[in-house]
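Mods, move this if it's the wrong board.
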Amino acid sequence: MTEPTISQLQPMPDDWRRALAVVAHPDDLEYGCSAAIASWTDAGREVAYVLATRGEAGIDTLEPATCGPLREREQRASAAVVGVSAVEFLDHRDGVVEYGPALRRDIAAAIRRHRPELVITLNHRDTWGGTYWNTPDHVAVGRATLDAAGDAGNRWIFPELTEQGLEPWDGVRWVAVAGSSTPTHAVDATDGLERAVRSLLEHRAYIEALTDEDPETYARGFLTQNAEDTGKRFGGRPAVAFELFPRVTA
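Not the wrong board. C-alpha cells:
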C-alpha cells in the first residue's frame, strides 16, 4: 500500500521586527516554542511575554501565596535564557481564567503597549491532538488572544484604553498558535534547541513537582522528541510548529 502523504510545513514569515507572546501560565512557552523564540532574538527581533496568571495554582504542595512569586521568578529567568527581558503578568487567577471582555481588554492593552507584528499564543482548542483534554485557561487565553489582535486596532471596542493613552494598534499581521494539532508553518529549531532545554529547566520547582525523572533528562527528552517529530514535516530539521492565522481586517 502507498504511504499517506504528510503535508509539509511552510517556513514562518520573517519580515517582521516585534512579536508578543501571550499565554496563560509560566512554562507554557517553554513547553511549546522557546527554541523558535531563541532563534528570533538571535536575529535581532524583539519578543515580549505576557502571562495571564502567575501559575499560583500549579504546584499542589505549595500554597498559592508562595507558589505565585516562585513561578514568576522562574519565568523571568527562563525568558532571559532565550533573550527575552520584557515579561508581564496580568494577574488573572490561575485555573479559573474566564474568556470574555475583561480578558480581551487586558490582552488588547498589552498589544497596544508592545505594538507587535506577530502575536504568539498556545493551543486554544478543546483538546491536544484530539486525545488529551485541554485546560480552561489555555482555551480562554488562546481564544481571547486571537480576538484581541483585532480588538487592539479598533478604538471603539475598548475606548477606555485610548483614554489611558494606549492608542489603537492595527499592525498585527499574524497570530501564530503553538501546540496546534493542525500546524501550517514551522521554525528551524537547530540553533535554539539547547537554549530551549535550559529555558525549560529554569522551571525546576514545577518540573520536580511534576515528575520523578531527572529534570534535565525530562526536559531534553520532551523538547528533542517534539522537535524531531515536527522536523519530519520540515525537511528533516528539528523544528517548532505553529498554526498561522493571517489577521483579516473588516
